[in-house]
Specification:
PepSY-ass_TM; 4-stranded antiparallel sheet; 236 residues; alpha+beta; 6 helices; 7 strands; transmembrane helix
Length: 236
């Protein structure tokens, strides 16, 4: 039986559009969002104020060796500050420990009040704090970052949220609504609905090839639809 190619390609294009058309629309919409919103705003750079460390007389501080004696398996010790207080930050396989650089006293974990104060000091706006929570399980927006950490959320339309280390008091990450929308759009864009990180998953590869087939069949139909000159038969 002779294949009627225009009819076959038209039906193929129609069914491909039904199967993959919605995903093509999602690719367009999510790609538009990710291009329009500047990546620095997505990262939340506008939320964090650079904090200048006060000048410290190093001669007045206890020697690093003093605090190293308390953490014999330390891999790093460096000068830092906590709420304008000079501290020694000591890193070891067991985690991070802070020592008062003036007395050598080991400091405890960061509490809720300290975490809130740290967040307020680095926040670029003046909204009130809506909540402070110590998380033992990572929320979706902090997958890949091992808890525990303090979650400090400010009362604003885009819910700026700072994650503070209870060990060092350092800012681990920041999140806000535009980042959360971006993360959801990224999930739809790469079609990884679990970890949102695999850009070479089977579903995405299959959808890509189906969309290519839809585009090629549509292009073929477009070319075929143009009027074509037909050679006139020669009369004897």
């Amino acid at each position: 039986m002779k294949i009627r190619w225009p009819l076959f390609v038209r039906r193929l294009h129609k069914w491909l559009a039904l199967v993959i058309g919605l995903q093509v629309v999602l690719w367009t919409a999510t790609g538009f969002y990710m291009v329009v919103i500047h990546i620095d705003r997505i990262h939340g750079d506008h939320l964090v104020r650079p904090v200048e460390r006060p000048a410290v007389d190093m001669a007045s501080l206890v020697a690093p060796g003093t605090v190293l004696a308390a953490v014999p398996d330390a891999s790093e010790v460096r000068s830092s500050s906590l709420l304008n207080r000079p501290v020694w930050r000591v890193t070891s396989p067991g985690g991070v420990a802070l020592f008062d650089a003036g007395t050598g006293e080991r400091l405890g974990l960061i509490g809720a009040d300290q975490a809130e104060t740290i967040a307020r000091n680095i926040y670029t706006s003046d909204e009130e704090v809506a909540s402070v929570s110590l998380l033992q399980e990572a929320p979706m927006e902090m997958q890949g970052r091992k808890p525990p950490y303090w979650q400090v959320t400010f009362d604003r339309w885009d819910s700026p949220t700072f994650y503070i280390s209870p060990e060092s008091g350092e800012l681990i990450s920041r999140r806000h609504s535009l980042w959360r929308i971006f993360d959801f759009a990224w999930m739809l864009h790469i079609m990884d609905y679990d970890d949102r990180s695999d850009v070479n998953n089977l579903l995405l590869r299959t959808s890509t090839w189906l969309s290519v087939a839809m585009a090629l069949s549509g292009a073929w139909l477009l070319v075929w639809a143009f009027p074509r000159r037909r050679k006139k038969k020669k009369t004897a």
